[in-house]
Amino acid sequence: MNALILLAAADPGSQVQQIATTFGVDWPHLVAQIISFCIVCFLLHRFAYKPVLKTLDQRRTQIAQDVVDRDKIKVELEQAEAERRRIMVQADAKATRVIEEAHAAAARLLEQEMQKAVSVAEQTIAKAKEAALLEHDRMLAELRREIGALVIEATAAATRKMLTPDDQRRLAEETVKSLARAA
Amino acid sequence: MPATVSQLKRTAKMLFRWSVVNETLDEGRARVVVQQVLQSKRRGYFTVLSEFQRLVKLQEARQTAKIDSAVPLQSDLQAQIRESVERVYGQTMNTKFGELPELIGGIRIQVSNDVYDGSVKSRLAALAAKFGIPSA
């Protein structure tokens, strides 16, 4: 601008001078515009930019917090997933152990029942043998008694017929001798 | 004062001792005792007589030898048995001979609780016991 003014001053009738005159600096007007501009800037800064910037800052902060929260949630989620996997592994191990224990208990029970059954069977066999033995002994005793009764009956009958008076006397004398010995 | 049963029994025992002479029951004295008690008719005389009778029976059993035989015994054998019994139990013993065919053979002498059984029946009974046959 100053260059134009200088050019206009150097060449007053020229086209440059016309332009400089037309577009010359109106200082009061310029100052007023500057002041108005400053006022507008202040107002914009005070009532428009500042809330917007504040809102943007809040958004930024919120977004940063969200990002942090998201990361935190992600970490927690991973921890939860890890915990879930650990619990699942533990549950699986526990279930496996329980199943194994159940199998072992079933095997023990089966073994016990087998032993019990075998014991009962052995006892039954022993009782049967004992009963058979007793029956055998009883039959033998009965047979012995019957044979004995027959022998005694036959002996009594035969003796009754065979004993002579001399035999009777001899028997009586034996008793008398036993009486004498008792004295 | 009424006498108790034990006192009456003691009285009977006293009377019985009086009736026994030389460890032998004197029948005459026993008759006297019975007649006197019956005539007195004191309280409890029946108990006294019952106890006296029991003691007399016991004495008679102690003084009597019962000899059973399957067949009748000859007189000399009877004398021999009597002599043996008196030698063992004393001169005052009475002997009663009886016939018991179920003995089959031999004799059985019983004096009070003592029994000398030499009969065939007792020997068969011993045999039966060995066979486990309960005695009849």
Q: What would you say this structure looks like, in words?
A:
The complex is a heterodimer of chains A (183) and B (136). Chain A is mostly helical and 183 residues long. Chain A is built from four helices and no strands. Chain A is rod-shaped and about 210 Å long. Chain B has 136 residues and is an alpha+beta fold. Chain B folds into two domains: 5-61; 64-130, Glutaredoxin (3-Layer(aba) Sandwich). Chain B has helices at residues 5-19, 27-40, 45-63, 75-89, 120-130; strands at residues 20-21, 24-25, 64-69, 94-99, 107-111, 114-117. In chain B, the strands form two sheets. A four-stranded mixed β-sheet of chain B has the order 4-3-5-6. A two-stranded antiparallel sheet of chain B has the order 1-2. Classes of the chains: A mainly alpha (183), B alpha+beta (136).
What is the helix/strand order of chain A? Answer: HHHH
Q: What is the 3D shape of chain B? A: elongated
Number of distinct helices of chain B? 5
Question: Which secondary-structure class do the elements of chain B indicate?
Answer: alpha+beta
In short:
The complex is a heterodimer of chains A (183) and B (136). Chain A is mainly α. Chain A is 93% helix and 0% strand.
What are its keywords?
heterodimer; A: 183 residues; mainly alpha; 4 helices; 93% helix; rod-shaped; B: 136 residues; alpha+beta; Glutaredoxin; 2 domains; four-stranded mixed sheet; two-stranded antiparallel sheet; 5 helices; 6 strands; 18% strand
